[in-house]
C-alpha cells in the first residue's frame, strides 16, 4: 500500500486543483467525465471569478475612502490656516502681542500638519480608520469657518464703531459750522451787508427779480402742502396711483415718485385759478373796473402796501384780526374747493373742519396750517403781481405742446434721456403744467412742466 503524502493547501486555487485532479482520475478509470462533475467545475470557476472581483472592488473602495479622508483632512487643515491667519491680522490692529504669538504658533502647527499629510501621501501610508477621520475633518473645518466668521464680525463691529465716531465728529463740525454761519449772517444783517431783497423794498425799485424771488418761496410752500396731503392720503389708505390717474389719466411716469407732481399740478390749478382777476374775484364789477382801463399808480400802491402788510404778519394772526377781509374769504373758498368732503372724511373721519371753515373759524391742524402758509404766499404773489405796471400775467402750457426752453422748465430730466435712447426723431411733449409761468412786460418767467415722450 502506497504512502499518502500531505498536500500544500492554497487558499484560493487549492480546491479547484483538487477537484480538477479528481475528475481527471475518474476520467482515467472510467474513460468518461460525468456531466454533473463538469457542471460543478464550471460553477466553482465562476464563483472564484466573482470572489476575485469582489476583493478587487473592496480594495478599490478602501483606497478611495482613504484618499477621501486624506483630502478632507487637507482641506480642514487649510481652513485652520486661514482662520489662524485671520486671527493674526486681527491682533495687529489694535496691537496684541500675546494674540499674535498664539496665532503664529497655530499657523506653524498647521503647516507642519500639511507637511505630514504630504509625506503620508508620498509613502502611501493608509489611514487605518478613514470614516473617523472624515468626521473629525468636517468638525475641524466647521470650527475654522466659525472662527473666521467671528473674526470678521469683530472686524466689522470695530469698523462700525469707527464710522460711528466719525459721524459724531462730522456732526459736531456741522453744528459748529452752522453756528458760525448764523453768527456771520447776524453780523452781516446788523451791518446791512446782507438782507432779503424784499426787505425795505419800495414800489419805485420793484423789478421782475423780486417777483421771481417770491415765486420761489411760493412754490416751496406749495410743495410742502402737497407733501402733507400725500402723507394724509397714505395714512387714510388711499391708492396714490389711482388718485394720480384720476387727476391726469394716461400719463406715463418715468419714476413712481413723479406722481407727486400730479398732485402739485392739481393744487396749483385750484390755488391759482382766477389769478388774473383782482382779489381772485370772479365778480363782474371787479373784473370790469380792472380790465377796461389801465391800473393807476394809486391802485398799484394799494396792492403793494397790502403785500408789505400781510408779509410782516402770520396768516393766523391776520385772519383773527380781520375775519371778514378779502384774504379770509379767499382762504375759505380755496380750502373748500381744494379739500373735497370725501377727502376730508377719509382723512379725519368727520367733516368738522369743513364746517368750522365754512362758519368762519380756522382749525388748529397741521394740514390747515400748511394750507394757510401756502394761501398766504399765493395771495402775496398776487398782490405783488398787481404792483407792476403792467401787471404780471399768468400762463400755462396745454397738454401735448412741444417743449421750449424759453417758456418752460422741466421738473425732471428723465424725459430727455428716454427720448434720446428711443429714437432721435422723438421729442418730449408736455404732459401737464406743474407750476404756471408769468409775463411781466417783456420778461418771461418759465413755467414748470412734466414731460413725456410722444
From TrEMBL:
Pfam families tied to this protein: DUF641, GIL1_IRKI_C
InterPro entries (UniProt xref): DUF641_pln, GIL1-like, GIL1_IRKI_C
Coiled-coil region(s): 139-187
Ranges where the DUF641 domain occurs: 64-187
Domain GIL1/IRKI C-terminal: 394-450
Keywords: Coiled coil
Protein name as it appears in the record: IRK-interacting protein-like
